[in-house]
Amino acid sequence: MNQGLKPNDVIYQSLEPNDVKYQSLKPNDVMNQSLKPNDVMNQGLKPNDVMNQGLKPNDVMYQSLKPNNVMKQSLKPNDAMNQSLKPNDVIYQSLKPNYVMFQSLKPNDVM
What we know:
This protein is largely without helices or strands. It has no helices and no strands.
């Protein structure tokens, strides 16, 4: 009870160089080392990086719409929106006698 703490007592001894809290970070420690050229955050974007390179002529956003692009080309006759309805289209042709709405009810119809 009376003796002073000895050098091998945990709370008495000063931290030694190999103790985690005492030693300075070594070059291979993640937090201490400066980023090397091949680290993602440190290196400047290279020409083939998506964010850095200027859009090339074959990129979708860069190239002016060519005649075969959907938005630029005028609708051709076989496009649904442009062509006039043909006689065999349902909404264009006048109802024929055998259509339900047009034909008069026959004697065996419920209504």
